[in-house]
């Protein structure tokens, strides 16, 4: 057993994120056959991901603020600190912070058999998609 070395915070790339979004890895695979990836992700007000999907799905635990998570059908779910949202394999979605506050979540996912399919990045969301009609998760 060992304490993991600290990995510096990185700012996520503008090809996949709009606004300021920072990533702090928590757990990455070490051994053959391991797939778990866990990271803390912080979004500045109004920041968002591009559309994307995950080959094996993803869990997101909001730890601060309110997360806004959208799907291609135009639905946006607002998730509050302490709540977890699950996106199934292949579901195209985005994550974002509201315009007036930061949001932080812990992202948990498994790597796909082909690493290129773990996360498939698509186009940026539009302002209309970002604004959508939000519902609150129970």
From TrEMBL:
Q: Which domain of life is it from?
A: Bacteria
Which Gene3D superfamilies does UniProt cross-reference here? Answer: Jelly Rolls (2.60.120.10)
User: What sequence ranges are listed for the domain Cupin type-2?
Assistant: 40-101
**Sequence intervals crossing the membrane:** none
Which Pfam families does the record match to this protein?
A: Cupin_2
Coiled-coil stretches are none
Read off the InterPro entries from this record: Cupin_2 (IPR013096), HNL-like_cupin (IPR047263), RmlC-like_jellyroll (IPR014710), RmlC_Cupin_sf (IPR011051)
- Please report the name of this protein according to its UniProt entry: Cupin domain-containing protein
Tell me which species this is from: Cryobacterium arcticum
């Amino acid at each position: 057993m060992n304490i993991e070395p600290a990995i510096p915070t990185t700012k996520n790339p503008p090809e996949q994120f709009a606004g300021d979004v920072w990533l702090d890895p928590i757990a990455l695979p070490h051994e053959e056959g391991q797939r778990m990836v866990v990271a803390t992700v912080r979004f500045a007000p109004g920041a968002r991901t591009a559309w994307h999907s995950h080959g094996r799905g993803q869990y997101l635990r909001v730890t601060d603020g309110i997360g806004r998570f959208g799907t291609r059908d135009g639905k946006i779910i607002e998730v509050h600190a302490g709540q977890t949202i699950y996106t199934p394999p292949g579901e195209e979605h985005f994550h974002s912070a509201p315009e007036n506050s930061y949001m932080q979540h812990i992202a948990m996912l498994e790597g796909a058999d082909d690493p290129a399919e773990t996360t498939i990045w698509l186009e940026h969301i539009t302002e209309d998609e970002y604004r959508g009609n939000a519902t609150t998760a129970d």
